[in-house]
From TrEMBL:
<dbReference type="GO" id="GO:0016706">
    <property type="term" value="F:2-oxoglutarate-dependent dioxygenase activity"/>
</dbReference>
<dbReference type="GO" id="GO:0005506">
    <property type="term" value="F:iron ion binding"/>
</dbReference>
<dbReference type="Pfam" id="PF05721">
    <property type="entry name" value="PhyH"/>
</dbReference>
<protein>
    <submittedName>
        <fullName>Ectoine hydroxylase</fullName>
    </submittedName>
</protein>
<dbReference type="InterPro" id="IPR008775">
    <property type="entry name" value="Phytyl_CoA_dOase-like"/>
</dbReference>
Length: 255
């Protein structure tokens, strides 16, 4: 399957809330990024987030439990080295996002996402349906994430599921639980979840998705760790709210 033009990517992103760009990263880029991620993962190079800290379904109960030191995220990808910085500010990403933002300059958030997502067999937890914007604080909510597959991604190894057009839906608060997860016990939510899409990804494929697009991931039932790299961007003029976590570190404008 070929990747649509920039205009085609932007149109699909606006209409569906997500779009897949096939072969967006070159094999050399994927190899360099994967090698850097594996290097840091094997050495547990800080900063990290552990599965046990989040306590999502399927995660170890504590760091002292079996699998308790299973890494969920390698944080601050942008600060981990030149390969990560090059990818986060890649001109091809900037081109898509500048078109999406109608010519405005995209800015990388160094606070939100900006990480290598790891999904381990056995101790990698599942992630319930949610919108990323739930804990973010900006002057508007038109943020877009870029998810790069560093290996194959399918439902069985924890690939992402998306709900098409959920980014423009006006959901009542009661349809989310106290942690702002989309409740899968409500019949009206179940009807929407039945329409979920999980695109199969190959190394180098990218998913651009809106911060209000509902998405989820199952546990990894394969025998290999799944690695993905994700960054989030906002347009110039969209500012993090003062004194919020979103404002705790400066963003990086894309040239």
């Amino acid at each position: 399957m070929s990747t649509p033009s920039v205009a085609g990517l932007v149109t699909a992103l606006r209409e569906q809330g997500f779009v897949v760009a096939r072969g967006f990263a070159s094999p050399d880029e994927v190899q360099a990024l994967r090698a850097a991620a594996v290097h840091d993962l094997e050495r547990a190079a800080a900063p990290l987030e552990y599965e046990a800290d989040l306590r999502y379904p399927g995660a170890p109960a504590s760091r002292e439990a079996d699998g308790g030191m299973t890494v969920r995220r390698l944080l601050d990808a942008y600060g981990r080295g030149p390969a990560f910085r090059r990818w986060a500010t890649n001109p091809a990403i900037a081109q898509v996002l500048r078109a999406y933002y109608d010519g405005r300059q995209p800015v990388l958030s160094t606070v939100h996402h900006n990480c290598v997502m790891t999904k381990h067999p056995m101790y990698g937890s599942l992630t319930g349906w949610h919108q990323d914007v739930r804990y973010w604080s900006f002057s508007d909510s038109d943020l877009v994430s870029c998810w790069l597959a560093l290996g194959p991604e399918q439902p069985h190894n924890g690939g992402l599921f998306f709900l098409p057009r959920s980014h423009v839906a006006d959901y009542e608060p009661r349809r989310f639980d106290a942690q702002k997860f989309f409740r899968d016990d409500l019949p009206e939510n179940q009807q929407e979840i039945a329409n979920a899409v999980c695109p199969d990804l190959e190394p180098g494929d990218v998913v651009f998705f809106h911060c209000r697009t509902l998405h989820a991931a199952q546990q990894n039932r394969s025998g290999q760790v799944k690695l993905s790299l994700v960054h989030t961007y906002h347009p110039e003029g969209c500012q993090p709210l003062p004194d919020s976590r979103s404002a705790s570190r400066p963003g990086v404008p894309l040239a």
